[in-house]
Amino acid sequence: MPSDFVKVGYNKAAEDYAAKRDQFNNLKYLEKLDALLRPQSSILDIGCGAGKPVDSYLISKGHYVTGLDISDKMIELAKRNVPSGQFKVEDMSELKPGEYQIDAVVSFYAIFHTSRETHQELFKKINSFLPVGGLLLITMGSSDWEGREQNFHGTEMFWSHFNHKKNRQLVESAGFTILLDEIDETGSERHQIILGKKIAPVAR
User: Fold this and answer.
1) Looking at residues 139-148, what average pLDDT do you find?
2) Is 68:48 a contact under the CB 8 Å cutoff?
3) Strands (E) located in the chain
C-alpha cells in the first residue's frame, strides 16, 4: 500500500525534512488565505508534517489548527514545534465524509503521496468538511507522473499526480471555484498552488 510506504519514509526522513522545509516559500499563499478567513477560523491541515511554517503561521494569526499526518515522528515534531495546535496521526486516505467541520483546509506537499486515482474522492471528502464559502489551499504536482524517488531526504518516497489542468478539473468538479491557480518554482521544484472556495455540496 502506498500509505504504508509513505509512513515508513516520512518517519525516517522527518528530522532532515523538517530542517530543510523552508526551502519552499509559501508565505504569500498563506497570506492570501489569511486575508480571506474570518478571525479565529478553524483550519484542518492534511499532511501537516512538523507543523512549521504553515501551522505556526496560521496560529500566529489567531486561527485554530488541527493537523493530521500519517507519520508518527512528524506528529511528535509538530506537537513540540507548535504546542498550541492540535495534532494527531491520521492517514488522509482513511478520512470519512463529514468527519470534520471546519472553515478551511490546507494541504502542502502531501496529497501527491497518495495514489492519484484517489484524489477526486479526497476533494469530495474535503468538500463535506466545509460550509459553503469554506476555503481550500493545496499544493499538487504540475505534471503527470507516478513512481518512487530513491533518495528523498535519505529514504525512498512514493509520488503520484496528474498534470495541472487535470488537478484543477478535479478540484472544480468537487464543488469548488478556483480563486488562484499558479505554478510555484521555489526550492528549485515546480508545484501547482490552488486556492479554492466551496460553492456547493457534491453528491457522493
Assistant:
1) 85
2) yes
3) 42-46, 64-69, 86-89, 104-107, 135-141, 145-152, 155-161, 176-184, 191-198
Predicted confidence (pLDDT) at residue 11 exceeds the cutoff of 60: no
Single-letter amino acid, residue 25: N
DSSP 40-54: T-EEEEET-TTSTTH
146 has a pLDDT exceeding 60: yes
Amino acid at site 57:
Y
CATH of domain 2-198: 3.40.50.150
CA 190, 195, 201, 204: dihedral to nearest 10 degrees? Answer: 10
Count the alpha carbons within 13 Å of 160 in the hemisphere toward its beta carbon.
Answer: 15
The residue-averaged pLDDT of 172-189 equals: 93
Task: Measure the CA–CA gap between 98 and 80, rounded to whole angstroms.
Answer: 29
End-to-end CA distance of the chain: 24
CA dist 201 and 199 (Å) reads: 7
Task: Return the half-sphere exposure (C-beta side, CA atoms, 13 A cut-off) of residue 157.
Answer: 21
Return all residues near 92 (Cβ < 8 A) that are at least 6 apart: 46, 47, 68, 70, 107, 110, 111, 114, 122
Q: Which residue reads 491520521 in cell numbers? A: 90
177/116 Cα distance (integer angstroms): 21
